[in-house]
Design a protein that fits this description.
The structure holds two protein chains of two kinds. Chain A has 14 helices and 14 strands. Chain A has helices at residues 18-26, 36-48, 51-89, 112-117, 159-163, 187-193, 224-227, 234-240, 259-270, 284-326, 328-336, 341-377, 387-413, 416-422; strands at residues 4-5, 11-12, 92-99, 105-106, 122-130, 136-137, 151-155, 167-170, 182-185, 203-206, 209-217, 229-233, 249-254, 278-281. In chain A, strand 10 (203-206) and strand 11 (209-217) form a beta hairpin. Chain A is elongated, with a radius of gyration of 37 Å. In chain B, helix 4 packs across helix 5 (146-158). Chain B is of the alpha/beta class. Chain B has helices spanning 46-53, 76-86, 102-107, 117-130, 146-158, 176-189, 203-207; strands at 3-14, 20-31, 35-39, 61-66, 69-70, 87-91, 164-168, 195-199, 211-216, 219-223. In chain B, strand 4 and strand 5 (69-70) form a beta hairpin. In chain B, 30% of the residues lie in helices and 27% in strands. The chains are: A alpha+beta, B alpha/beta. The interface between A and B is large, with 53 and 59 residues.
Chain lengths: 423, 234
């Protein structure tokens, strides 16, 4: 026999025409060579042969990275929302009546509101007056002790504009209703009283008489005391509830860049006779403190995510070790075909890296989806810090590299004959 | 004739208690285009000899020279380079990768020579055409018969045009018809100058070779030497 019959019927030698083509390449060097692109495609092929196993292995890392990205994303989204809120409401100051040096209560003067209104950077000012001892009940039949902690505040019609609040149902107090037994309930107060809608005949029993409920407010984040109060007009508070006209608290909205300056002059302006009896505070600082408290949990959740990703890495290492044992024949074959120990190690390491990178990418997508779901659910804008996917992928690949080192070394240690014999 | 593979006083001992001497004082020369059958009873050291000759494991003592290069002094990368460029292997178990089709399996034969994927693929198609599998290019091993799988393995062994093809019981998993075809195919490699060394129990396979080397207890006990023209068709 001098050759082989090809499919096309021509006589051709097996080693044939291409021998010269490869002969020139043969002379270029004696070391075995493998192109980087072939290394990657070999790694991919190894994983494609065991798709389900690869997917399950990557899932462990994916969950860990997803947890990390979601924690950072949700934290960032909340922070962004808070910053937006602070940007809109950080220029609000409250002025409260306090006590003098001798400990006696020092109510705010009747002129306090108008005096503060004359400070040039002050955009708006509004007063509320606390009616001491007044209770709010659903009906007269409810015992007075079941007041639910609802307080009664006299308010002006400019309150909502200054606080950035809004009405959920009905209307706010106006020039007409502030003179009559009409009230607007804060969000929590309405909930406590079981009032969810406003009808013309909706009434509450306020300090011994029925007041018509004309409106219900939405929550006011910067002034939670409003949420738990029943608001009435100053005229009716003075005439029916004995307030006496003195405000107990003033809400002051200033130009955003003049907050500190206004803050420093408010005590003297509000009560020139007893400035030490005036308390000035900035509600937005409470929000900032709340945000800081929330972020304290971020580290904990990130640590849990890291543990999950680490467990995923152990899973990958386990799968890769099993893979080395199962594929000894393939390892022996590759060595016989010219693969060096380094090529074999690199192939298994590449598989581990691809597996973990796939898990990392899936985790980033899952984490981003979870963040988006949370943000949409809480009416926030979705913010994923760029560092989250970058660090997530770096962690995933790092875990893959660590997980792949031992299996790769184990595969590389096999001599070709050992691998072929034991397969 | 040019010597492509030479073994001089080669011994191979596996550690253990007691140590196992698989090869002892083996001296063998394989020349270009020579067809050699390595025969002998089980445990006689045939496969070990093939592995040592193919640099799949190193001898305990003695020298192995392939195409003029003494392999003992070579690094792992250089030794792998020798396997990639000078040697082709055919195994009884075929060792085809199940998730690759015939072309991809054959192309693996050039993977460690730095050849581009496109060129590897073209060479693989050419090699498959030459072993008569031009119509089975996209088939995976599970879709091929035993004889066809071994043809794919032979195409993979010769795609890089090695100096020597080393075959370990290439017909061991095949029926007699497919086995005869494979033997004819292996024998034909020598027509282009490739030396062929076949480890076999099968007398028909041995008869198809020019030279018969008989082994027993790790030693060469008989060597007919090259007998061109004596080869017959099994």
């Amino acid at each position: 026999m001098t050759g082989l019959q090809t499919a096309s019927g021509h006589q051709a030698s097996l080693a044939g025409d291409a021998r010269s083509r490869w002969t020139s390449k043969r002379q270029r060097g004696t070391r075995s060579r493998m192109r980087a692109v072939d290394l990657v495609s070999s790694g991919l092929l190894g994983l494609r042969a065991r798709k389900l196993r690869a997917a399950l292995s990557a899932l462990g890392i994916a969950l860990g990275i997803a947890a990390g990205v979601a924690v950072l994303g949700i934290s960032a989204s909340s922070k962004s929302s808070l910053l937006a809120q602070l940007g809109a409401e950080g220029n609000l100051l409250t002025v409260s009546a306090g006590h003098g040096y001798d400990g006696t209560p020092a109510p705010l003067p009747l002129t306090a509101e108008s005096m503060i209104g004359h400070i040039p950077p002050v955009e708006s000012v509004t007063a509320v007056g606390y009616v001491p001892g007044a209770t709010v009940l659903r009906t007269a039949a409810v015992p007075a002790v079941n007041s639910g902690g609802i307080s009664v505040l006299a308010a002006q019609d400019g309150l909502l504009a200054t606080l950035g609040g809004s009405v959920a149902h009905g209307t706010f107090l106006n020039a007409a209703t502030e003179r009559y037994p009409a009230t607007v309930l804060g969000a929590v107060a309405a909930q406590t009283l079981g009032i969810t809608q406003v009808h013309p005949d909706t009434q509450v029993y306020l300090d011994g008489r029925y007041f018509t409920v004309v409106g219900i407010l939405r929550p006011v984040p910067l002034a939670p005391e409003i949420d738990e109060a029943a608001l009435v007009g100053f005229p009716v508070a003075n005439s029916l509830l004995g307030l006496g006209g003195h405000p107990t608290e003033l809400y002051v909205r200033t130009l955003p860049d003049q907050v500190q300056a206004v803050d420093s002059v408010l005590p003297f302006t509000a009560n020139p006779a007893q400035p030490e009896a005036v308390q000035v505070s900035r509600p937005s600082s409470i929000l900032a403190a709340r945000a800081a408290a929330r972020s304290a949990f971020t580290g904990l959740f990130l640590a849990l995510g890291a543990v999950a990703a680490g467990v995923g890495g152990v899973g990958i290492a386990n799968i890769m070790v099993i893979s080395v044992l199962e594929r000894r024949g393939e390892i022996g074959l590759r060595r016989a075909l010219g693969a060096t120990r380094g090529h074999v190690a690199a192939q298994f390491l590449t598989e581990s890296l691809i597996l973990s990178a796939f898990g990392g990418a899936a985790g980033i997508l899952l984490g981003a989806a979870a963040t988006a779901g949370y943000a949409i659910g809480y009416h926030q804008s979705t913010v994923i810090p760029p560092v989250a996917p970058a660090v997530g992928m770096a962690v995933a690949v790092g875990i893959g590299a660590i997980a792949g080192v031992y299996p790769a070394a184990k595969a590389a240690r096999l001599t070709p004959a050992e691998a072929l014999r034991s397969s | 004739m040019t010597t492509v593979l030479e073994m001089q006083d080669v011994a191979k001992t596996y550690p253990g208690s007691p140590p196992v001497q698989a090869l002892a004082d083996v001296t063998l020369q394989i020349t270009c285009a020579e067809r050699t059958a390595l025969v002998g009873p089980s445990g006689s050291g045939k496969t070990t000899l093939l592995h040592v000759a193919g640099t799949l494991e190193r001898p305990t003592s003695g020298t192995v020279t392939i195409a003029g290069e003494e392999v003992a002094s070579l690094s792992d990368a250089e030794l792998s380079g020798v396997r990639a460029r000078r040697l082709g292997f055919v195994f009884q178990q075929f060792y085809l990768l199940d998730h690759l089709d015939a072309v991809q399996n054959v192309a693996l034969g050039l993977l460690h020579r730095g050849v581009r994927a496109r060129d590897r693929r073209a060479a693989a198609i050419d090699a498959l055409d030459r072993v008569g599998l031009g119509h089975r290019l996209g088939h995976r091993p599970a879709q091929l018969s035993g004889g066809e799988r071994q043809r794919v393995a032979i195409a993979r062994a010769v795609i890089g045009h090695p100096d020597v093809v080393l075959a370990d019981e290439p017909t061991g998993n095949l029926d007699s018809v497919a086995g005869s075809e494979i033997v004819a195919l292996l024998a034909s490699l020598a027509d282009d100058g490739t030396a062929v060394v076949v480890v076999t129990h099968d007398q028909a396979v041995a008869a198809a070779m020019d030279r018969r080397v008989v082994m027993r207890d790790g030693r060469v006990v008989s060597d007919t030497g090259s007998r061109p023209g004596l080869r017959g068709t099994p």
